[in-house]
Specification:
- The complex is a heterodimer of chains A (542) and B (66).
- The model of chain A has no long low-confidence stretch (mean pLDDT 90).
- With 542 residues, chain A is mostly helical.
- A two-stranded antiparallel ribbon of chain A has the order 1-2.
- Chain A has 23 helices and two strands.
- With 66 residues, chain B is mainly α.
- The radius of gyration of chain B is 16 Å and the shape is elongated.
- The relative contact order of chain B is 0.21.
- The C terminus of chain B is likely disordered.
- At the A-B interface, helix 2, helix 3, helix 7 and helix 17 of A face helix 1 and helix 2 of B.
Amino acid sequence: MENTNLPIDIGHWLLALLPIVVLLIFLIFLRWKAPEAGPIGMFVAAAIALLAFQTPWETLAVAGAKGVWDAIFILYVVWPALLLYRITEQAGAFDALRRGIQQFSRNQLFLVLAFGWVFASFLQGIAGFGTPIAVVAPLLLAIGVKPIYAVAIPLIGHSWANMFGTLAVGWLATLQVIDLQNETATAFQTGILLWIPNLTAGFMIAWMFGRMAAIKQAWPVILIISLVHGGGQLALTLWNPVLSNFLAATAALAIAYPLSNWNRYSEPAEGIDERPAIEDVDKVREEEEGEPIMGLGWALLPYIILTITSVIALVIGPVEEFLEQFEFGLGFPAVETGYGVVNEAESPYDPMSPFTHPGTFLLISSIITYLIYKSKNFYEKWDENNKGILSTVVSDAVPSSVAVLSFLVLSRIMDHSGQVTVLAQGIAEVAPPVVYAFAANWIGVLGAFMTSSNTASNVLFAPLQQQVAMTEGISEATIIAAQSTGGAIGNAIAPANVVLGTGTAGIVGREGEVLRKTLPYAIGVAILVGLVTIPLLGLELF
Amino acid sequence: MSKLTLLIISFILFILSYPLISIGTTGDSEAVWIIGLAALALAGLIPPVSRFVADDDNDEEEKETE
């Protein structure tokens, strides 16, 4: 942790919190659209940086430009994901998918859990960068889930998989920024805590589907899947943390098919009268006249291609090593503030490896799918009056992109001006050890909320958390585990992630409504994780 | 001007600010990074302003049910 002269007092702490509070007020209470509310938060953060955190204009400029570059990593998922969505939707594939899947399994509750939790977690295990939300939201729409829930469900379903997902990029980044005394104990305790958001995600999704009646029907499958997800990941952290999430999420995907044949889940869910997440049945049926344009196999083609390309590029070591050689990015000089917050020069800053980025896999999947659907004349047969795919993608993607850009610029300004450090150190300074253990995961949540990245949250806060653990004489492994789990949970409420879903679900501007669904879940799970962190402090593991 | 057009301009300005600020700050060219910062500020200003001035802004979708 660098030495700074940052004033850690209540005035500066409240000022540092203001950009986030303003953003939430505009999004949730004033119901502004994300592309409009994001820049307001960005300007508030910049004004506070200039006026209260002694940030020079050049530092502000560098922070803003780094935020733009951080956003480009996410936008390279948004644009190809929207392209894939429009390519499949305008060929009639989503209609075929919905009707094909309903023949394959008639239990809508099971399908919502399978897509929103099991498949979303699998995608997070390999791809990450918001891919599960962008891809799963339209799939849930296709099976009759209301748009707000179609975004909220994968946000909740995928979040637990962020830390060890994308082949444990968050874990590897944590090892880069701090030297852990006991890596095995830290990974194992992280696995314990991550089981909480995993298990609660299953129950929360069932609750969203049909309240207690749905939970009564779904609890056996939730426990089985969570045992494979959370228990599998926990066990695998002892052997290989890098593969722990990928293997656990893949195993859960593999058992989804046999579970769908279980009598309890092969027939329509009975006795669930209240279904808040599901469209009016009559409305869905109105659209089901005639035969689907294609079979289920053709409709699933893009997702099969996406899975195959991701696995080949990211799981096979030599292929990944070869593809990772190609990277690009621009440099930035060292900058600092009047309070001594220094950011070293980087040339290039956080370079992008395009061939191992999930955006490329989505793009490949989009191109191949388009060519095949075109050769089968699906576009002409489904709707001759289709709007142009590319123009639709632009009108869908631009509002989401502006929102993501403003969120990430806000985040980098808060980071480079020291506002983030003041927020975290403020909590650390006033909290006694037990309270700090409870609060540690909330700092992780804050980091992920701002950056929409578990990795970025850990890079920002793991050094601080380690320092506080040493100062207070409490277990470093437990505190880092709590930070990492908070970083995962925060992905369920990160505005940039929400925008990914509202973009592909066609409800840009309704981000506040989605947040109203996911925020109570994230707060509840963070409280649970905090409560479990306290007894973990006393356990001598490994 | 339509809302989408304004947002496209904002998007382009956001993206343009990245190379301008990088080149300006690493090459000690103050004018270049100031132009980049101005582009970033303008990019951020356009979306909230478009809420009030765009020809086709409509919020009817927000009134839809879930």
